Amino acid sequence: MQISLNWIRQYANLPENLTAERLAYDLTMRTVEVEAVSNTAGLVEGIVTGRIVSVHPHPGADLLTVCMVDIGRDRLYQIVCGGTTLYEGERVAVAPPGAFVRWHGQGEPVELKKTKLRGELSEGMICSSQEINLEDLFPAEDERIIVDLTPQFPNAIPGQELADLLGLDDLIVEIDNKSLTNRPDLWGHYGIARELCAIYGGILKPLPTFSLPDDVEAYTVKILDTHRCRRYDAVVFDRVKTVPSPFWMQRLIWSVGMRPISLPVDVTNFVMLATGQPTHAFDRDHVEDGIHVRLALDGEILELLDGHELKLASGGLLICDGKDKPIGLAGVMGGARDSILPDTSGMVLEVANFEAIGIRKTAARHQLRTEASSRFEKAIDTPRCDLALGLTVELMRDLQPEARIVAAGHHHAEKTLPLSLPVSLHFLNIRSGRKLSAGEVVKTLTPLGFESTFDGDDTLTVTVPVWRATGDVGIKDDILEEVCRMIGYDQFKFVPPAIELKEAVRQLGYESERAIREYLAIRAGLQEVFTYPWAADRFLEAAGENGSRLLTLATPPAPDRSRLRASLIPGILEVVTQNARYYAAFGLFELAQVFAKGASHPGNKEERLPSQARQLAMAVAGQDAQILFRKLKGILAEIPRHGRVAGWSFDQDGQKPDWADKNAWLVLRDSEGETIGRMGLLSPRAADDLGLRQTQLAVAEIEIEKLVPLPSRDNRFEHLPHFPLVEQDLSIVVDEEITWARIEEAVSSHVRRV
């Protein structure tokens, strides 16, 4: 964004000796990031005002003219020119020898020298606007149309510097838009002036107030969606003339990067650039029966000012007349047929406040980035409409006295109110690293528009002004930032943070998880995989998921992947299916979250999320089902020792997993008898559904959060045995129905290792 210092001085009494370097430094250190500061006078350096004394045809060229020009020196200068609008007495822009111009408006500036053109001496150039970088200020169809200064400056003195004549001596501050994102109050010259008054101690001049004449008619204004449009004011002017605006207004608008068009349009742009509140003017004859604001319908067509034809979608906000005809895309751009035209004699002025997120989405959807949308999407306060109305009415009264207000209407659905924040003085002192008194804080905040009261103990009650209360300042930390930046960050000494070294908190759960991963990957030889949290329907069905505990995605990545996994088994089955095409035997494992219906509160009571338990799943694939089953059982049996968690036992009592073979499955139970996992061979039905005809698969899943982590073993000293080791071989005969697990349970407490 570009800011004119001359424009700002209309609202604030800043130091007269304010240099570009100081302005850039102070703004960058306290408010926004200044990228560059330039002077527009540099665009026409060396260019002077000339008066054409005589015009004669060139004797050797039909398209050239020989002019004698007075440029305020001791003699007349002869200049050969190809311009088509030359006449005696005309005031023109002249580049004498030594000045730089863009030749025919193209390329880089080149230095002029005396030369002969078709045999005639030419001592300089009578310039077109394109040749001296003023094409937007003096628009012309081509470079042959020279700048005619006579209408604007009929008494211009020959030899006067063109920059002085046009008032171009102005510092233009270029501000990085990213640093303004949270500051909607700074998207206009008045807001920047308020900020500079706070920095330099100046006084901010008030803007004109808005008041309607007594004899105006009521104008119908209706907002159908008060969430998307909080306020809409319409003022109808009669006897409007579409004439050029005065040069001072054109110059200011041009200096900050916009193009002057006509008085009614320039007034709306001037008000937006001054206050930060976008406004728009409609042709009164094309707006029937008032204004209403509504949401667009799918398929509606709107031709915009830039000639672009939009096919609208539901959700966009439209400005319509009383006949429901769309006349503008709210907060973005007006319609081509209903805005100010060359023959406009009456206008409907729109000053409105729109919801920021909706404007941002509309601009992004249609790839339309305008000056208006850039401001509305930052969240403007509703009282700024009053500033824009007051300034617009005064400008129209001064610049077109014959124009008069004949009707007005408004719909105010919601008003931006100031915020009140309690802030601890102790908090400000601790966070700033500096001793701040209550008086110093109040004195710092007051020029910014904040009102503060102190309870005499520790609490300041700070009232945030409406122009900062739309999302910019909302917590005590924002008040801290305001105080520190206005004092100046360079005024704070560096205080290294106090670091107290304490014993590290030992988190056995994380240690155990890491140990389990290392055991499975290194000792057990399994490959760790990572799958998406959504699962395909075919793998959910193969895993026996009936959908009753599954969560459905509002916008699934694919039609068949609309549900989140409640178990890791479906993802493991998908990975096995993909790898079985290339490998005859392999092993996989995954440790990740699963999702199920039910509430969890990971942060606080207000934060409500689905249940998100963590599981460990593994699978071994090969050709021999018995070997795979025993291999997986052996891997599971060693997890407690290598993973440093409490042990478990294997049992076949309880409910069989839906995905398991009816004859080959086991349940894992902890010491309390609670089920913490399951294992088994994949059932023939599931294998057939997945196309695993040659591959056998053993699968297991463990509720990782139910495991009890244990500390690693403690090293302690033991004496060597006094007597030599005596080995004994013991044979035991048991019934064939006795399982190995029961034998292990019976003898494990009597021996050192089983």
Topology:
Blueprint: E1 2-4, H1 5-8, H2 20-30, E2 34-39, E3 48-57, E4 65-70, E5 77-81, E6 91-95, E7 100-101, E8 110-111, E9 115-117, E10 120-122, E11 125-126, H3 162-166, E12 171-175, H4 189-200, E13 217-218, E14 221-223, E15 229-238, H5 247-255, H6 263-275, E16 279-283, E17 291-295, E18 301-303, E19 309-311, E20 317-321, E21 326-329, E22 333-334, E23 346-354, H7 356-365, H8 371-376, H9 384-399, E24 404-412, E25 419-424, H10 425-432, H11 438-445, E26 451-454, E27 459-464, H12 476-487, H13 508-523, E28 527-528, E29 534-535, H14 537-542, E30 563-564, H15 569-579, E31 586-593, E32 596-600, E33 609-611, E34 614-622, H16 625-643, E35 649-651, E36 660-669, E37 675-682, H17 684-690, E38 696-703, H18 740-747
Parallel strand pairs: 13-24, 14-17, 28-31
Antiparallel strand pairs: 1-12, 2-12, 3-4, 3-6, 4-5, 6-11, 7-8, 9-10, 15-23, 15-24, 16-23, 17-20, 18-19, 20-21, 21-22, 25-27, 26-27, 29-30, 31-34, 32-33, 34-38, 35-36, 36-37, 37-38
Structure description:
With about 750 residues, the chain is an alpha+beta fold. The chain is about 25% helix and about 25% strand. It is built from 18 helices and 38 strands. The strands form eleven sheets. Strands 28-31-34-38-37-36-35 form a seven-stranded mixed sheet, sandwiched between helices. Strands 5-4-3-6-11 form a five-stranded antiparallel sheet. Strand 18 (about 300-305) and strand 19 (about 310) form a beta hairpin. Helix 5 (about 245-255) crosses helix 6 (about 265-275), helix 6 packs antiparallel against helix 9 (about 385-400) and helix 13 packs antiparallel against helix 16 (about 625-645). It is elongated and about 130 Å long.
